[in-house]
Amino acid sequence: MIDADFEALSDRAEREALMRIPTSWALDAATVARIRVAAKTLLAELASFQQLLRDLRARPRASKIAP
After folding, report:
1. How deeply is 17 buried, as exposed, middle or buried, from its count of CB atoms within 10 A (0-12, 13-18, 19+)?
2. What is the span of the domain harbouring residue 40?
3. Is 64 within a domain?
4. Cβ contact 36:18 at 8 Å
5. Distance in angstroms (rounded) separating the CA atoms of residues 41 and 12
6. pTM for the full model?
7. What is the DSSP letter of 62?
8. What distance lies between CA 17 and its chain's CA centroid?
9. Does residue 60 fall inside a structural domain?
10. In terms of CB atoms within 10 Å, which of 5, 6, 20, 59 comes out highest?
11. Mutual orientation of helices 47-55 and 29-45 as an angle, nearest 10°?
12. Count of the separate structural domains present in the chain
């Protein structure tokens, strides 16, 4: 299991902003984009996920998500 949580983001301001997003079934496009970028960042920074990629000899696919 790989635990990816906003609390693991190294950027404190971004982490705090994302933690303030209310739970909702409807989010605006900008918020969804921000969450997707955060998820990409988390996976890139998580040692456990990077180890899984190495174990599987996998490479992350190119993403359409802008940084």
Report:
1. middle
2. 6-55
3. no
4. no
5. 13
6. 0.71
7. P
8. 14
9. no
10. 6
11. 70
12. 1
Q: Does the residue 39 lie in any domain? A: yes
Cα–Cα distance measured from residue 65 to residue 19, given in angstroms and rounded to the nearest whole number: 20
pLDDT tens for each residue of 2-40 = 888 899 898 999 999 999 999 889 999 999 999 999 999
C-alpha to C-alpha distance for 34 and 57, rounded to whole angstroms: 29
pLDDT tens-place string over residues 56-67: 988 766 666 555
- Here the tokens at position 43 are 């996976």
Query: Which one-letter amino acid corresponds to residue 44?
Result: A
Residue 15 · residue 7 · CB < 8 Å: yes
Rg, C-alpha atoms of the chain: 13
Rounded CA-CA distance 46/60 in Å is 13
**Is residue 1 in some structural domain?**
no
